């Protein structure tokens, strides 16, 4: 089986999908000849031509508006927003148009688009290249929201998203593009070639949207995370020696509530981790659901570990980033509760 980085896995997913279905088109800013700012689309234009993979003007609203029109016509656009921070001009098109086409047409039309966007920090991108806006999409009926944590999942979930008849927001944690980052920025980067989940089939496969994965079994406390924070949570569990069960959500909407509930009822404790800001972050929704479905099983208050309620600070990158030390303190707190 091939070893791939997450960038290569994402590229392979688009390559496989374009090869299987002529209706799949890829476009966005600099994704054609240049191959994208992270090279996720490198070689696709040369292989499939300028009508299947092409550059768009620097106009996110125009990119999404065009994709929606293409989807209504019968195509399957997979578009790239260069950074998740740039999606705001397109938010109206995503939420008011793409998300509602099936509903407003009573099922006569669907909107099979995928919006790829690099998300999160850890690369010293500062306030306009480090945001985690996933919660803004989970509040919108009609959208699906995916955040993979590794190359194997990224490819299988992206192919599933491209084949899905409804709009999918596909957020790619850019700090994971080249390796499974555990929050220890002072250490050398571990490449995906040395990680089991860097093994990725070269052909077609899918992973069901809406199904979480237990990355570490445990009986003392449940840690719910997604994206980069999955690896941070795993590191925190190992470093504290606490028998934590770590759940990788993979899909935020639809959410695999059953896996969360079963785990928390077993452990009696819960820590929720995400990189986005605390207030109105997706972690608040998870806390509410755990409180609603697991109240009589809880042995301690639920704890959240998140980014701060500030713009992402360039000078204090690692103070903002929820690292294993902060997650470890939360694990100890709930165990003492």
TrEMBL record:
Record bears the keyword Cell wall biogenesis/degradation: no
Membrane-crossing residue ranges in chain numbering: none
One GO MF term attached to the UniProt entry: branched-chain 2-oxo acid dehydrogenase activity
Keywords: Oxidoreductase
InterPro entries from the UniProt entry: THDP-binding (IPR029061), Transketo_C/PFOR_II (IPR009014), Transketolase-like_Pyr-bd (IPR005475), Transketolase_C (IPR033248)
Keyword Ribonucleoprotein: no
Domain of life: Bacteria
Coiled-coil ranges from the UniProt annotation: none
Residue stretches making up the Transketolase-like pyrimidine-binding domain: 4-179
SMART domains registered for this protein in UniProt: Transket_pyr
EC number: 1.2.4.4
Name of the protein this chain belongs to: 3-methyl-2-oxobutanoate dehydrogenase (2-methylpropanoyl-transferring)
């Amino acid at each position: 089986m091939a070893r791939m980085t997450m960038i290569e896995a994402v590229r392979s997913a688009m390559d496989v999908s374009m090869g299987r279905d002529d209706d799949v088109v890829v476009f966005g800013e600099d994704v054609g000849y240049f191959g994208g700012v992270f090279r996720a689309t490198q070689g696709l234009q040369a292989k499939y031509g300028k009508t299947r993979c092409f550059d768009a003007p620097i106009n996110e609203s125009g990119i999404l508006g065009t994709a929606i029109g293409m989807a209504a016509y019968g195509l399957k656009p997979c578009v790239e927003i260069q950074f998740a921070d740039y999606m705001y001009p397109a938010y109206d098109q995503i939420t008011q148009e793409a998300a509602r086409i099936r509903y407003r047409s009573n099922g006569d039309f669907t909107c099979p688009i995928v919006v790829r966007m690099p998300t999160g920090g850890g690369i010293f991108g500062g306030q306009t290249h480090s945001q985690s806006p996933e919660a803004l999409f989970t509040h919108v009926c009609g959208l699906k929201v995916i955040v993979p944590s590794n190359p194997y999942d990224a490819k299988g979930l992206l192919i599933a998203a491209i084949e899905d008849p409804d709009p999918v927001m596909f957020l790619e944690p850019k700090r994971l593009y080249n390796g499974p980052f555990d929050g220890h920025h002072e250490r050398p980067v571990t490449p995906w070639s040395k990680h089991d989940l860097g093994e990725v089939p070269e052909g077609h496969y899918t992973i069901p949207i809406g199904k979480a994965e237990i990355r570490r079994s445990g009986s003392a406390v449940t840690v719910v995370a997604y994206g980069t924070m999955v690896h941070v949570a795993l590191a925190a569990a190992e470093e504290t020696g606490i028998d934590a069960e770590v759940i990788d959500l993979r899909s935020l909407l639809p959410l695999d509530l059953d896996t969360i509930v079963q785990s928390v009822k077993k452990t009696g404790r819960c820590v929720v981790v995400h990189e986005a800001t605390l207030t109105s972050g997706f972690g608040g929704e998870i806390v509410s659901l755990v409180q609603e479905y697991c109240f009589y099983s809880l042995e301690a208050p639920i704890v959240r570990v998140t980014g701060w309620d500030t713009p992402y600070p360039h000078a204090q990158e690692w103070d903002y980033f929820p690292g294993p030390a902060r997650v470890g303190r939360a694990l100890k707190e709930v165990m003492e509760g």
